[in-house]
User: Fold this.
Amino acid sequence: MSINEALLVKAEQLIPSMIETRVEPVRLVDVHEDAQAVQGWSARAAGDAGAIKTGAYGKGDSFVLDFGDHLVGYLRMSVRPVGSPPDAPLRLKLIFGETPCEIGEPFESYNGWLSSSWLQEEILTVDVLPAELRLPRRYCFRYVKVAVVDTSPKYKVSFPDVYCIAVTSGDPSNIRPLPEHYPEDIAAMDRIGIKTLQDCMQTVFEDGPKRDRRLWIGDLRLQALANYETFRNDDLVKRCLYLFGSLLLEDGAVGACIFEKPAPHVDDTRLYDYSLFFVPTLLDYVEATNDRQTLEELWPVARSQLEIGLRRLDERGVVRDDATWWCFIDWHEELNKQAPAQAVLLYCLKRGLKLARKMRDGAAEAWIAAGIDEVTRATLAHLWDEERGFFVSGERRQVSWASQIWMVLAEVFGPEDNAKLLRRLAEEPEAVPMTTPYMYHHYIEALIASGEPEVALKQMRRYWGGMVEDGADTFWELYNPDDKRMSPYGSFLINSYCHAWSCTPTYFIRKHFKDMF
Ligand code: RAM
Assistant:
């Protein structure tokens, strides 16, 4: 790991101040199994939240509070004894859920491969009552289950005051209201996309405030695009760029993600595509802000991502596909990453060329342009299968949605051929499908780039509209309309239900679809 202190100081000077809002629960709910509900559980109204102020709860009692919307913040509660003087500690168990399934499904049933410590629960033992409880950990929830594990036979408790201090660095007063004539479903997708982004905007752009609560560059790139159309907290993008730019892996590659605490440091996860995404993220930032100084300071980091990316080419000019690398692209076990990685490299080289021109870095311009030629030629010679009419990936010449979409975005062909390619793809049942909203984002981008905005709009409505119909308060990390309990982690309990890379409907609506309603 290598640290550039001067750049890191800049990042730390940009730590945002947080906006705090007090939010009260709106009702009590009863969470029950529901075969029709997306994750198998729903919540139905079970009375006024005020009931907990005067009720008396003893051993084995519980209730579920509904805060009415997704929140990220700190729970505070006051607890009062009812009955005789408390002669034993109070023990409470709290369970937090972004969705009803986390409240309904017992966490003990979880056996996925990500740590179970992400599941949000807490045991509190309170010796002295009455008490003002301030939970130190930040939680991410709409629902909170409060279960009284024990009081004593002589006393019970009531809860005169329970609320959340919600936190974000996204200031909604910066957002222009949508024109009133926009259709309702579009307004809903815009609102939910904004809420998703807002709840992920903390002291960095987090991927998911429940999990992994950290800065990933693949997520940052999409959040930044949505931010330029909404919150305009451009300094937060700048902070994140300086964090990635100052905390590099040993060979100068940008790491896949950054931890802020106890002191900023880069994770040892290396993703081929994610390192390269530093380049377009910087270009988008510079185009949105005209911040020349940041461009000058971070250009060397961007440039070296392209150099490192090009080093993976084999003698034919094709990205080497072996067991030693990890390239993200999408969560799909069977997906071969070679062709999409090749396309990401080309996409980033083209954006790097724009940066080199802005920097008047003639030497870089020359080798980047040569790289674009080489990669394009090799792509057409080795990854394009004329007979099948698709780009193929890996030794087994796999056809996938990811490969075609990224090749469209890399503009190997012009818009018309790209539109035809995407139409053929939609008719090809054998192609390895997409699984994440992250990949769907790129599908929508690819449709727009190949002159098919109506199809893009239709697909956005189908996919994110499906989440809205399935009750999303914020957009989800994973959503497969054909397998709604899908999780790459072994259980949908650990999925994040407010996820950065899913926030982009607001970007599409405000930037690309604005003249279509
Ligand atoms: C998961 C998260 C994150 C993503 C990485 C690659 O851990 O969903 O958002 O960027 O994968």
